[in-house]
Amino acid sequence: MSHHDQKTHSCTLELKKNNKFKHDGAAALAKAAHRYGFKNVNKGFVFASKGAGSPVMRKKTLDGAGSEIPVTDLQSDAEYVVAVKVGTPGVTLHLDFDTGSSDLWVWSSELKHVGSSGHNIYNASKSSTSKKQHDLTWSISYGDGSMASGDVYKDMITLGSIKVPGQAVELASKLSSSFQQDIGSDGLLGLAFPSINTVVKNGKPHPVHTPVQNMITEKLIANPIFTVKLTRGGSDGFYTFGEIDTSVTTNPILYAPIDDSKGFWSFASATFTVNGQSKALDGGSAIADTGTTLMLLPDSAVEAIYGQIDGAKLDSNAGGYIYPATSTIPALTFAVGDNFFKLNEADFPYGQPDADGNVYGGIQSSGDLGFSIFGDVFLKSVYVVFDQGATRLGVAQRDD
Predict the structure, then answer these.
(1) Which distant-in-sequence residues (6+ apart) come within 8 Å of 376 by Cβ?
(2) What's the CA gap between 228 and 385, in Å, rounded?
(3) For residue 3, what pLDDT is reported?
């Protein structure tokens, strides 16, 4: 069916809670560090790997000795997943929607021992619309040695009421152990720009269109945008494609230009405020990344924030900053372009207090990365419009 036969429209997809998800602050920080390849977290934590699938976080002490904290299930970080149908008649897969990457990869029948994994599996031979792309392969690897790779098919994917024909679907034929432990999702759907897609043709980069790029190119959606409202508290989250949901908030959507030169949703963020006091954000830029759980900032910003929280401390056993759950969180705002948005203090603690009453902070160090990552801890406070057509990001403060 050609795209001319399809009505141009929009759809809303609900976020489903991954019941296998566990809050583990050190693992969430380690996952981000491995994903983006940054080190020297908090000027003393560095990340190391003992071979594939056995990541550790290493704390350097003043005398040069190190203590190691094992970090398990690094990839099991999708707190919420979205149902997407792949193929004809199709199988419904629960995918991690990720604005920090650009691959659509899925658990497939090409994986060994996959039948007993508890995953929904895509089997290209059972789809009447699948077509193998013979000279294309893909591979994703992270700094901890974890990796996923395989071959590529084109097939129909269905997101709500939107059918995307001829979408490149990357089938996993190899997954390292940390990916295999990710029991909550059946793969990932990347929502960043196509330039960082990992598909190669005869050994050379050959980025394929993301689902959103195909929706735009094929005029399958009314507007070249998608939006996200993340779940927080009792307020259910969703993604929309092709339209803005004006019922989310009474506050205006304020736009900032996006620099997509590295494939990310990157914007200027030069300043933040702590209890009304303005401070410079080192690096001056940030990315909006639904695939990162925490909010990650330069050390100077992290120190300024925890310096305003009674009893806060950098704790090697916890793998980051912790603070007493009874302490007051300072009022925090962060620039997206020229506009400031408040972080809802209810989202600042990550997980439950430990036996001593301390809780892991939702803001942690981005080490030597050179830019900030506005992950879910920040994004829950706002409604975000990813305007791919105009290469801009719209952000509105949420009321809930």
Answers:
(1) 79, 230, 290, 292, 293, 294
(2) 7
(3) 37
Peptide bond connecting 330 to the previous residue in cis, omega within 30 degrees of 0: no
Show which residues are catalytic: 98, 289
- What's the confidence (pLDDT) of residue 184? 76
* pLDDT tens column, 319-362: 899 999 999 999 999 999 999 999 999 999 998 999 999 999 99
Inter-CA distances, 167 with 289, 306, 383, Å: 23, 45, 28
Cα–Cα distance for residue pair 386/146, rounded to 1 Å: 29
Q: Report d(CA 377, CA 380) in Å as an integer.
A: 6
Q: Phi first, then psi: what are they for 353, rounded to 5°?
A: -60, 150
| Torsion over CA: 54, 52, 205, 76 (sign) | negative
Q: What is the pLDDT of residues 111-148, one digit of tens each?
A: 987 666 678 999 999 999 999 999 999 999 876 677 88
Phi, psi (5° rounding) for residue 359? -125, 150
pLDDT at 25: 84
Burial of residue 326 (CB within 10 Å: 0-12, 13-18, 19+) is: exposed
Q: Are 181 and 137 in contact (CB under 8 A)?
A: no
Q: Using DSSP bridges, classify how beta strands 372-374 and 285-288 pair: parallel, antiparallel or unpaired.
A: parallel
Q: In what order do the strands lie in the sheet with 45-49?
A: 45-49, 55-60, 66-70
Phi-psi region of 145 (alpha: psi -120 to 50; beta: other; left: phi over 0): left
Counting as low any pLDDT under 70, the low residues of the chain are: 1-8, 40, 42-78, 114-117, 143-144, 181-183
Contacts of 359 (CB under 8 A, 6+ apart): 322, 323, 324, 325, 349, 350, 351, 352, 353
pLDDT computed for residue 57 by the predictor: 44
DSSP-derived letter for residue 71 is -
pLDDT, tens only, 201-210: 998 999 999 9
CA dihedral 276, 278, 284, 286 (to 10 degrees): -10
Gyration radius (Cα) of the chain, Å: 21
Closest to 39 (Cα-Cα) out of 386, 339, 370: 370
